[in-house]
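Chapter review: from sequence to fold.
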Amino acid sequence: VEGNPAPFVFLYTSGNIMSLMSSIFLSGPKRQFKSMFDEKRRETSITYLATLGTSIVVCFIPIPTGPKIGILVLLLLVQMAASLWYTLSYIPYGRATAKRMIKSVIAGEE
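The token string follows.
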């Protein structure tokens, strides 16, 4: 990875924020936040929102490129995982199926 990752991270994170705002527009802010902070989604929502904000902040902090790339890649991976886990919570048996798939891959089963 060469160059400045900040523009990509900024655009990717901005896209996720816009996606979140569109769902707020469709369902209404009260209903969306109630759903996001439901007991089964609370931790994932907080993680997702925290990585969105932290990614934007890190883009604009003047730190050396090497550590910045590492931090931003880590934040993007956590952001993607939290987004996926959050989305799976809306699919019946989505998280349970994902857990079974992950366990079978780790165990080497088919």
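Two observations follow directly from the output. The chain has a mean pLDDT of 89. The chain has five helices and no strands.
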